[in-house]
Design brief:
Strand content of chain B: 15-25%
Strand order of the largest sheet of chain B: 2-1-3-4-5-13
Shape of chain A: globular
Shape of chain B: elongated
CATH architecture of the largest domain in chain B: 3-Layer(aba) Sandwich
Largest sheet of chain B: 6 strands, parallel
Number of strands of chain B: 14
Distance between the termini of chain A: 20 Å
Number of strands of chain A: 2
CATH architecture of chain A: Orthogonal Bundle
Radius of gyration of chain B: 22 Å
Number of helices of chain A: 14
Largest sheet of chain A: 2 strands, antiparallel
CATH class of chain A: Mainly Alpha
CATH topology of the largest domain in chain B: Rossmann fold
Number of domains of chain B: 2
Number of domains of chain A: 1
CATH topology of chain A: ABC transporter involved in vitamin B12 uptake, BtuC
Distance between the termini of chain B: 46 Å
CATH superfamily of the largest domain in chain B: Response regulator
Structural class of chain B: alpha/beta
Oligomer: heterodimer
Structural class of chain A: mainly alpha
CATH class of the largest domain in chain B: Alpha Beta
Order of helices and strands of chain A: HHHHHHHEEHHHHHHH
Largest interface: A-B, 37 and 37 residues
Strand order of the largest sheet of chain A: 1-2
Number of helices of chain B: 10
Chain lengths: 346, 340
């Protein structure tokens, strides 16, 4: 890969820039390959240690655990690409999960109606984040830290001490999480479809490419006429929608919802995004990478449990993987940037 | 400072007025010597378990003509409880009924309250021993451990095979004491010689983690016959996993849970029986004991006996602990009688 970058015949600054872009895309793709390789290595090692790990039903369980996180990670990626972050996703999932559960309990709207309202609520909460960041120009980390508490507070307010139990939920709704299509659990299919759709749009649509441009260089994006404000707002709405979808599925997956549902989920999601190679400073990374990051973290979690290692190791290993992923990124980027600067000067 | 002292005088004055007014209104019908202004401070508000306990407290309050209120943090940490204790102390409530998030962290604040003459009663989770007058224990560890082993033995055909425990956090005092009691019972009672405890897993009282742990138990112990989950989040997550993986009925599930959370799984047979103490009675007994302390009818000394309304007679044990009673077993035929 490095050979191609060095051999690029260009000497002008422009083609140097293009080379950099191409190289970074290459690095991102290598990054996905890298995650898959680490994943395969983990699977191989754990299977040797504990053959029970290697079974269709276990992999199915891992993917089921990933599915909701992956859906939220898709939204988060969209926001992170624009050099922003949404810390409120855990609270959005929790609030939507409770609101949907409560609607289903009252039987006033039916399953489809409650799901639609839940998704709309997610969009609304995401739009509020978007207004704060894109219009009021509050830094995203502060704005969404605020709404993290506000949304969770609303959740406490409507939930009070109540909870929605499995007995309150319609059978059709509970059935979503255990149903399958052609033998594959519906949740996994839903997550895969959402991720693929987002990956396609980010890669091929104009707005998708502009999100990358905003993250790479916000000032330049503004100068060349990209509607920065509108796109950042849109990214937060997409993120809210994804969190809303995960929220409406939450009760089906876990059978009960209380006011604390999905608290702390935001950190799992951001970990997946970062491990998946999405640059936390925006501009590069892919949805597929983020989903692979989520799968890797969930596989390691499952593996540690099956190997009977203590939970303390789990936290330490999660942390080490994040540092390793980010460290590798920084090192590779630095290396290529030095090379390109040198070739550019020549 | 001067303001605070004068406000204290004012409050004392109001308290006297209140006592006088109270004595006047009840017209010699056994007027209490002090007003009952008792506050419940649970581990966290927004928790159905503590709301049920509060309903028992309210019942006792109306029976005794006292006041009841519940305040508390939204997050179950000792640090979050301290400001609430300080506020209640400033408000000069007559007693604080508290479930400690951290027994030692909240002890200094509780001692300050006690120094001002406020009675402190622990319920559900005890504060440090010297920072409370009495602790109402919902169930003794042995009783809770024994009943869970008994239930899993009843449900597993032949009472033989591998069992696992799905607990809360690895540091949870209550759960660890119960698990130890289970282990002692399994080792000492020959009736359970066929049962083998293969793993204690920790779901951290988080639905996601409990779900992952339950799945891992099923995967890594294919011959597993039973799961005991001594925590409400764990047992309902395990029930959901058993249903979604089609293992319901093949792997027996029991433990501690609340009726509302477990109703569906008891009705469809995923979990045939589980136990819990009567949470409402816990709140009732805690309020009643606090009221007797405030009224000076008991001092909180070991060996003292008292009658707590509809619940009957209790004795304070040498550690200053009052035991609520044996755990209650929920099954398909009685679960609909309880709603919490």
């Amino acid at each position: 890969m490095s050979v191609r970058a060095i051999d690029s015949p260009s000497s002008s600054a422009l083609s140097g820039r293009l080379g950099l872009e191409r190289t970074l895309t290459l690095v991102a793709r290598l990054r996905e390959v890298g995650i898959v390789m680490v994943l395969l290595a983990v699977v191989a090692i754990v299977t040797i240690q504990a053959p029970l790990f290697f079974s269709v039903s276990n992999f199915e369980q891992i993917l089921l655990n990933v599915s909701l996180i992956a859906i939220v990670a898709v939204g988060q990626t969209t926001v992170v690409l624009t050099r922003n972050v949404d810390l409120s996703v855990g609270s959005v999932v929790g609030l939507v999960a409770f609101a949907t559960g409560d609607l289903l309990k009252e039987h006033s709207l039916g399953v489809a109606g409650a799901i639609a309202v839940g998704c709309l609520l997610g969009v609304g909460l995401g739009a509020f984040n978007g207004l704060l960041v894109a219009v009021a120009k509050v830094p995203a980390i502060v704005a969404t830290l605020g709404t993290l508490y506000v949304y969770r507070g609303l959740d406490f307010l409507i939930a009070g001490g109540k909870q929605v139990s499995a007995i309150d939920l319609p059978r059709d709704y509970l059935g979503i999480a255990s149903s399958t299509v052609l033998g594959v659990p519906t949740l996994i299919i839903a997550a895969a479809l959402i991720a693929l759709a987002a990956a396609y749009l980010l890669r091929n649509s104009g707005a998708g490419r502009q999100l990358y441009a905003i993250g790479s260089n916000p000032a330049a994006a503004e100068v060349v006429g990209i509607p920065t404000q509108r796109l950042i707002f849109g990214a937060f709405v997409v993120c809210g929608l994804c969190a809303g979808i995960a929220g409406v599925l939450w009760g089906s997956r876990f059978g009960s919802v209380n006011a604390l549902a999905a608290s702390g989920l935001e950190l799992q999601v951001i970990a997946a995004v970062v491990v998946g190679g999405v640059n936390i400073f925006g501009g590069s990374g892919t949805v597929v990478g983020a989903v692979l990051g989520a799968v890797l973290l969930a596989t390691i979690e499952n593996a540690l449990r099956i190997l009977h290692l203590s939970e303390f190791w789990l936290l330490a290993i999660d942390g080490a993987i994040i540092l390793l992923a980010v460290g590798t990124d920084a090192a590779i980027r630095g290396y290529f940037q030095r090379i390109l600067v040198r070739t550019g000067r020549r | 400072m001067r303001w605070r002292r004068s406000s204290q005088f004012a409050m004392a004055g109001m308290a006297i007025l209140a006592v006088v007014a109270c004595g006047g209104s009840s017209g010699g019908g056994g007027a209490s010597p002090a007003t009952l202004n008792i506050a419940f401070l649970p581990k966290a508000v927004n928790n159905p378990y503590f709301d049920v306990a509060a309903s028992g407290g309210q019942e006792a309050a109306s029976a005794l003509n006292g006041q009841f209120k519940q305040v508390g943090p939204s997050e179950a940490t000792g640090a979050a409880q301290i400001p609430f204790i300080q506020t209640l102390t400033q408000q000069n409530v007559s007693a604080i009924v508290v479930s400690a998030d951290d027994p030692d962290a909240i002890a200094p604040a509780l001692k300050q309250a006690m120094a001002k003459g406020i009675k402190v009663v622990g319920y559900d989770s005890s504060p440090a021993k010297d920072a409370r007058n009495v602790f109402i224990n919902q169930a003794d560890s042995k009783g809770i451990g024994v009943v869970q082993v008994q239930m899993v033995c009843d449900e597993i055909p032949g009472c033989a095979g591998e069992i696992a425990v799905l607990s809360a956090t690895s540091t949870a005092t209550n759960q660890n004491a119960w698990i130890q009691a289970m282990k002692d019972e399994l080792a000492s009672n020959s009736k359970y010689s066929g049962l083998k405890l293969v793993k204690v897993a920790y779901g951290n009282d988080d639905p996601q983690i409990s779900t992952t742990e339950a799945q891992a138990l099923l995967t890594s112990y294919p011959n597993l016959k039973g799961i005991i989950s001594p925590t409400t989040v764990g047992i309902s997550a395990a029930a959901q996993v058993l249903e979604q993986t089609g293992k319901a009925g093949k792997v027996q599930l029991t433990g501690l849970g609340t009726p509302n959370l477990m109703r569906k799984y008891v009705k469809d047979g995923t979990c045939k029986e589980f136990a819990l103490w009567n949470v409402k009675d816990l709140g009732y007994l805690a309020y009643y004991t606090a009221a007797l302390l405030v009224q000076g009818k008991i001092k909180g000394n070991p060996g003292e006996k008292f009658t707590a309304g509809r619940l009957g007679d209790y004795t304070i044990d040498p550690n200053g602990v009052v035991l609520l009673g044996p755990p209650f077993v929920f099954k398909a035929d009685n679960i609909d009688q309880l709603n919490f």
